[in-house]
Amino acid sequence: MFFIGILLPYDDKRLLSSGSKTAQSPLTIALSDAGILPAAHLINGLIVISVISAGNSSLYVASRTILYMGRSGKAPAILGRTNKAGVPWVALLFTNLVACISFLSLSSSAGKLYSALITLSGAITHIRFRQALAIQGEDTSVLPFQAMFYPWGTYIALAANIFLIFFQGYTAFLHPFSAEDFVVNYILLPVFVVLVLAWKFAKQTKIVKLEEMDIWSGRREYGDDVTEDVSKKTIWTKIKDIIVG
């Protein structure tokens, strides 16, 4: 970023012009100024090559990870199959399928739905956690952090996210009905339900009763972390920690 920043003046009009094809592209502008006319095509080509390389590496790592999970019993055994050349074709197909589904994130509605589902899960978890504390007779004062406005704040957040999940894609129902928008806006709902039910069916899990819920295992106690005495650090050590970490 430092070298890109010194290629052009900060007030270059081509960076600030929304109608310019080179807006927000200092590399393209710098190459054009250097007399390389097809600079935009060169930059685009480099970006495409980088994207293909990154995608290839990601597919390789993801497919081999799924292959290991399939062979170690952490995923369906079919994902551990390979062909005669040793290529994990099932895991590779599965990885590509998930990659294609991830393109739904290009839709802002799909992103909102995903965020709402995550927040909804967190709200339900928080409510059950606090209910378990009450039923088991635990004092909430021992918690290092307590949510403000509980329980009404959590219930309001829960209701708001349920509303958002079902109504964020209402435009798909406007005349005329758009099947494409409907799928993009709501495809995550059946996927979410199928994944939850599949896990519960495969692992034979059940909803844990509040009085049986283990709420303290793995809890970190105060004083477990040994912190370094900051007062003994020199000024140069503090600067190094800020810059290097």
Task: Describe what this molecule looks like in 3D.
The model has no long low-confidence stretch (mean pLDDT about 80). The protein has a domain at about 110-215. It starts with a helix and ends with a helix. It is mainly α and about 240 residues long. The longest helix is centred in the N-terminal third of the chain and has 33 residues, at about 40-70. The protein has ten helices and no strands.
Task: Give the topology, please.
Blueprint: H1 2-5, H2 13-16, H3 26-33, H4 39-71, H5 89-101, H6 108-135, H7 152-167, H8 179-186, H9 188-203, H10 235-243
Helix pairs in contact: 3-4, 4-5, 6-7
Q: Count every helix, treating DSSP H or I runs of 4 or more residues as helices.
A: 10
* Rg over CA atoms: 26 Å
Alpha-beta content class:
mainly alpha
The strand count comes to: 0
β-strand percent reads under 5%
Uncertain ranges: none
- H-E string: HHHHHHHHHH
- Average pLDDT metric: 78
Major sheet details: none
Estimate percent helicity.
55-70%
Distance between the termini: 19 Å
Q: What would the principal axes of the Cα set say about the shape? A: extended
